[in-house]
Amino acid sequence: MTGAFRAACVQLRSSDDVAENIRVTSDLIREAKAKGAQFIATPENTTLMAPDGGAKLERSFAEDRDPALPAFTALAKELGVWLLIGSLAIKVSETKTENRSFLIDP
Description:
Blueprint: E1 7-9, H1 18-34, E2 39-41, H2 53-59, H3 68-79, E3 82-93, E4 96-104
Parallel strand pairs: 1-2, 2-3
Antiparallel strand pairs: 3-4
Helix pairs in contact: 1-3
């Protein structure tokens, strides 16, 4: 790659409403793209900030069922941008989640 590119970091106040967090994050990504960003990073806990571990576990998904991944993959493709999703809470067992970051290309 030659030349300059524009990067953006978006910040949001994630709640325990995964669908709403995906919507807000998507809006912020679109705004960053409109301002010229080609690489956009989101924060840790992008789609879920729960009041405690039990609530986090209850609202988390296995990686292959997480609604954020297909949404952000489609958005990266649509906008032609790279996305670094700071982290998603991924359910790895009935008693445990792990934070995982995802780098998604256009």
